Structure formats: structure tokens, C-alpha cells
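Entry 14. Structure prediction run on the chain below.
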Amino acid sequence: MRIARFTTGEDPVYGLVDGAGEKIAEVTGDPLYQRIELTGATHRVEDVRLLAPVIPRSKIIGIGKNYADHAAEMGGEPPAEPLMFLVPNTAVVGPGDPVVLPPQSSEVHYEGELAVVIGRLCKDVEPEDALGVIFGYTCANDVTARDLQRGDGQWARAKGFDTFSPLGPWIETDLDISDLRLVTRRDGEVVQDGTTADMVHGVAALISHASKAFTLLPGDVILTGTPAGVGPIESGQRVEVEIEGIGTLSNPVIRH
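Output returned:
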């Protein structure tokens, strides 16, 4: 099932997207917290504005250097345990929303990633139980001010600017994520081409590790890391993150 959050110019609502990604059937309620029912209204996806499919009420947990090839291009080895950082929910934007380059940075990079949306409150989850707490999956771009990341020595500012966490286009709730192709394009050119099979720490291990540090709440998002090929973005460019079985997240880049 594909669940989208969208607007036709009124208050945001949720809907179920068909397999072709062309039509959306409106539903009542918030699928993360309430029983949903079809309202009978349908729309063409091209006629609505898709929004970020989830705005975490609690937190986004990022995972650093979770692909060996990306760790190598950054000049290091993958960590023995998942390397976690937090991103504020104010960084989230949706499909088509601009990524705004801040004046504090002259070296902002894209990072295409698979995002996991948590479906229920949980703590101290064991890996064998982790898949049971997942609501679904979406595409993410973990935008990073690389110069600030190096200079600050920690990643909160570098990854936490407003607009630095695009999510979308919708949440796919039924998906085998063991080996999905992940492709990032900058102005139509392929710059990342990887697979989720190359994660150093798989999704179940990431959920377990995070839940043993933080209570996970419905709507929390875990960014699972990026494959090799990260690089700079400039004002006027567009970044697309496409994940097999989910869809494509596309965002323009502008300067503040």
C-alpha cells in the first residue's frame, strides 16, 4: 500500500496511491494513529501537491557511513556499530519543495537514502522483532553542509538546516528492502547507483540499535545511510532520489 500526504489547496489529507502512481484515493484520518476509511474522492496525482508523507513528531535518526564504499570515499572505514545522529523535524520538506542552500556553507552535498518510518511506540527492540515496528519506507535526501560537518566536529548543524531532509513521494508499506536499487540523479545525470543489499548494518539491526538508545515513536524516521557518489549541489540544480519499489523524490535547489 502506498500512502501519500497531499493538498488540493485546503488542509493536508492522506490518500492511497495506485500502483501506477497516477491516481490517489482520499482517506479520512491519519494512518499512523487512526483507522482510515475511503472518502470516495479521487484525484490525479498530477493535480495535487504532494507533501512530505510524514512529519516526525519526535525525531529523525540518521545513520552515518553505513555503506562501505561511501565510508571509503569519505576517507574512513565503516564503524563497528551504527553511527547515529539526530536531525530536527523542521528540516523536513516534501516532493518538489526547494532545498535552500544556507549562507553559512559553500559546500552542500546530496545523499540519496532509504528512509524507514516507525509505526508504533517501541523500546529495546531485538533485531528479530524489528520488522514488526515498521510502518513503511520512503525516499530521502540527507542533505549535508560538508564544510560545516568537518568544521563543527559533529553533525547537528551540517545536516539540520531547514529544508535539508526531503522525504517522499509517499510511504510504501509492503516492500522487501533487502536488495533495492537506489539511484540519485543531479540534473538528470546519475551520480549514485547502489543497492540496499550493500548496507553494512541492515534495517533490523539499525532499528534495534536505535531503540536501545531512544524510545521510538510512531512517525519517527530512520535514515539508513547513503552509497558512494555523494557530491555538491548548486542553486538552479535538481536532485532526484529514486528507489526501486517506492518511487522518485525530486527537489530543486535554490540559494538563500
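The chain is about 10% helix and 40% strand.
Filed with the rest of this week's runs.
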